[in-house]
Every structure is written in C-alpha cells, then in structure tokens.
Design brief:
This protein is an alpha+beta fold.
Length: about 425
Amino acid sequence: MGRNVLVVGGGGREHALGWRLATSPSVDRVVSAPGNPGLAQLGPVHAIDPTDPAAVAELAERERIDLVVVGPEAPLVAGVVDELQGRDIAAFGPTAAGARIEGSKAFAKDVMTAAGAPTGGAVATGVRAEAFAALERFGAPYVVKADGLAGGKGVRICTELSEAREAVDDALVRRVFGAAGAEVVIEEFLDGPERSVFGVCDGEEVVLLAPAQDYKRALDGDRGLNTGGMGAFTPVPGFALEDVTYLEDLVFRPVLRELAARGAPYRGLLYAGLVETAAGPKLLEFNARFGDPETQAILPRLASDLGELLWASATGSVRDAELAWHDTAAVTVVLASGGYPGSYPTGLPISGVPAANSHPDVEVFHAGTAIDADGALVTAGGRVLNVTATGPELATARSRAYAAADEIAWDGVQRRGDIARLE
C-alpha cells in the first residue's frame, strides 16, 4: 500500500510537487490545502488557512495522511511542522526554529558565519544610526534587507547612498514592512552570477538535486522589477550536478551541524542561494523550501520516486538515497498578470490551457488560478500559469515551452521571451 500525502500550499511549486508525487510508486493519494484548480485534478482540495498549524494537523488526521509536504515558507515559519510532529504525523519541512534560516536574514547570516560557510559581510540592527554607519562601511552598491518575510519585497540594492538611507527609513521609521522590517540587515554586495542549489536534508545528511537557473526580473534582458520568478531551466551549462557536489561539505553539512547544535535539526529542503564571485562561491541567502519556479523545471527530470525521497527526509535518513535523472532538459515559462509585480486585476477568463497541455512533453502548472461561479478558469494571482516542457536538449525544450505558451491567453497576459535563450 502506498502513502496518503497532503501538499500544503496552492501555487505552481505545489502543483508541480503534487503532480510528481501522484506519479510516485510509493504514493497512493494526493490531497492539497488550499490547493488550486490544477491540484484539484490530482485529488481532493480543502480550503483551509495553510498558516494555521491546528487546521493543517486536523485535516491531516481526518484524511488519514501519512506524509505532509509543506510547500511555502509562511506555514513553516508559523510552526505547521511543529504541530504535525506533536501529533506524530510525518512532515517534510523544517520546524519553526529551522525555518528561521529563511524567516530571519540576521539569523541566517549568524548561522552561516558560525558554520564557517563562505558569505559576505553583514550588520544586523534595528538602530537607524548603526544601519547608516554600516552603509558607509560597505560602500556601493548598497544592500538593504528587511530581516523578516516581506513577500519578496524586502530587499533593496541601491547605487546611491541617499537611496539606501531611504530604504533603511522605509523599514525602521516608516515601517512599510511591519514587524518584518523592525530590524534590517546591511550587507556587502556580492558581484557575480547567482546560482541556486537545492539539498534534501534529514538533520545530518544531504542529497543534492540537479541545479536550475531562474529569472527574477520582470522583463527581457533582466530589466524591470524583481519578481517571484519569471522562468527557469535545467540543466545549466557549466553548473551540472557533478559541478556542485563540493557544496555538500563547503555549505550544507556545516550549516546542518550548526543548526543541530542550536537545537534546530533541519529536515526538509534547504535552498542555498549563492553568488559566483571572483573569490569563489559565497552564500547570499537560504530558503527553507523548494524554489519557485525552479521546482517546476527540476521535477519533470527526476526519474526517482519523489515520495520515497521526501519520506526518507521526514522520517529517517537520506544517506543512501541515489537519485536518477532523465537525460533531458526542461524549460519553464511563467505567464503573469498584466501589471505584475505591481498591481494587477484578477478574475479574468483564461483560454487555451487544454490545448497547451495537449502538446507533447508539456505540463501546465497552475500558480494563480481559480474557478469562477460559472465554472470558468480565471486569473487569481500575479503569476498565473507555469508552462514547462522537456526535450533532448535546451533548445528543443525551449521551443516546446513557448509553442505551448502561445496557446494560452487572457487580457493582459505577460511573459518573458528570453527564458533559456543562451546565445
């Protein structure tokens, strides 16, 4: 008998996790909360608050769930895993203490430094004068970060000192980020290409997933505002899985030992954001969950049983996990609402998803969609759909992804046209 799995969350990452879990030999049934129209095609969805630990745990008990897979960071920081563990329900994801690695940038910097992992200099403070002094010390470009979770909007990189001081005042004086900005982290700017490496952890050991590259800026050529991610691809030339295994000992194991020493053994997905500087790789940040939209590109290439891997992380050891990968490339193109990442309308009718899904080697993942009162699929978020295609090489995967994306339309749909364009 396979396991019953509950996927917590309702975005494109969670749809991709649910889709891959539904094909896992170790999984019988996939339930989602709050889910989305894509996840609803895989199994029951339940409209609960994913950041309410008691509600998640009670749902897991009612549905006889064997494993809960937490997708977004907010439920982790809220202590959903702690509540599940207290009721002897297996959960993939860190406790609230471990999730501070994403929930507090000051905590993450402290852990990196104590673990001896390579990172840039930083000063964490809630005092305006101390923040201003740190800006002077590090120099331009100036990096100002709200300490807590700020919906991806708490990081400012400024070329002018006056602009950086305004960013400090936004957080500490004007409190535009609320409690998340009660402290700021002023960091040394790290110059170089950013890379993301995902490690599935069991508290002591780690197994790495194939790296992917994502695109944060809204517009082609890496212009425009930062977003939650407008696309991704894998494999990354010159940054294959065999190229990053050294990070297990340089970054992951030291950080896992440090977290365990602080009473916060880390089980779940640890996402290391690195910058390839002239002095070698340096840690920029950690996330406590799968990346979005990188997950949508990585999981179609995974040939192993995802359910078994996540179960090993949650309940045992990943030491002997040997992952298998399809010898393919994958490209994910994000279709977003007009105006994103600023204000945008919702409730707009979407056409063409079945046609896009009918393309060979294509999966359309729902990220910000809903079903309206008339039963029509409509927009319900900034990033609406993620079109992922696989192929024998990147060029083929890319052409398939964009051909499928061309089928989908709604009023004001926007996308980047240069995802995985490597020339």
